[in-house]
Amino acid sequence: MKTSFKVTLLLFLALFIFQSCEDNDDVAPPASLEVNDFIWKGLNLYYLWQADVPNLADNRFANQTELNDFLKGYTKPEDLFNALRVAPSIDRFSWIVSDYLTLEGQLQGTTKNDGVDFGLYLKASGSTEIFGWVRYIIPNSDASAKNIKRGDIFYGVNGTQLTTSNYQSLLLNAESYTLNLADYNNGVITPNGKSVSLTKTVLNENPILINNVIETGGHKVGYLMYNGFYPNYDTQLNEAFASLKSKGITDLVLDLRYNSGGSIQSSTRLASMITGQFTGKVFSKQRWNDKINSYFESEDPEALKNLFTSTVGSAPLNSLNLTKVYILTTKSTASASELVINGLKPYINVVQIGDITTGKNVGSITVYDSPTFGKENRNPNHRYAMQPLVLKIVNADDSGDYFNGLNPTYALKENLANLGILGTASEPLLSTAIGKITGTAKMVKKTEGKTFPYFQDAKSIIGQNQMYVEKVPAGLLKSLE
Q1: Does the reported pTM lie above 0.70?
Q2: Distance (Å, whole) CA 370 – CA 377
Q3: How many whole angstroms separate alpha carbon 287 and alpha carbon 272?
Q4: Which domain covers residue 197, as residue numbers?
Q5: Cα 114 to Cα 194, 198, 356, distances in angstroms
């Protein structure tokens, strides 16, 4: 989204108009209700489904005193936040944190992490027992120095079987723990007595895990595994495309199978690097709640558009000018990754290989307890912040109804019995893409062996499956002073 002076002013005016139209008095909430007051007012202004939640209606409370009486009914801020959301079947992704420093780090790829990126699966449909398997190891992490690798399976932590009710406490809350490993044989997960001890450290994950070129069948196939839309790495992403461009690639396979999303701006930049011939055209369009959206539509409708770009900051993009791209996906492919796929479809041929995606066509912002809900002048008494869904996003053709996920052109799920080595021509998903590029794969082999119901993954359980606008628009108010 544009973060220009005009957009900032518009949302400031919208905020001002909203607040001035309230029939509340000027009584400040007591200190014990500061967090709850911030939650209600932030959601009242920004929440995508504000009009569908009766307790968030603009006329719900006649004055601050009435609002205070309502807020007193919730002793935990998290309980109030969840009570003000629509049904979880509609809003699956809004969340609140008690420490915005942790949230800010997560959105930039910085987490307390042992370096094991994993998927979690149910042992059987309807089962409460789950198991995990290692998708990849983050370089320079604790795990990178341990005897653990892609494809390893774990069933428990510290000797306790993982379940749908204990996985968070076992995997998230401990600084150090031991993964109990298992073997996989003909669809059966069997403990093998082996284990690996891991310790979490503050880890900055570069989302560009693999960037190479595979020459085959007269083609130079660029392969880029990109695992998160973290804005701090946009320059490195541009450099990765410079490398691919300098090597004269003829085709691109973009691997987003473990990319659960991130910045809308980074997504727009990646799409612009893949293409380059559509600068200034609409990549995607945003739809906020009626209160904010109607203001934009009447005053500056262009502010709701994300346009293909030719720069990262002041640096020119290294664009490939492709008319076809191959994108690898799994059930973990979400939000900003799905935006790349959907946003490119009106312009070039997008060949999706793998599994159906998550289905997250809505975006969020970080809302702080401050006069403008931005970073400036945050309340020093607490570190609560919200990441509510505030917008729905569609492509240039107004298509964006993929709540149930984006279906692949060629369906092929990852198979625990044959995962392959990432980035090699024999890895099943990449091999399928190469076969389609060279014309040697007339059909796609079905996933052999048992498949397990997907449950969660390492990124989604800590809230990294976001698609977000990087700044709360009103948070730039200071630039007007």
Answers
A1: yes
A2: 6
A3: 22
A4: 111-203
A5: 18, 6, 28
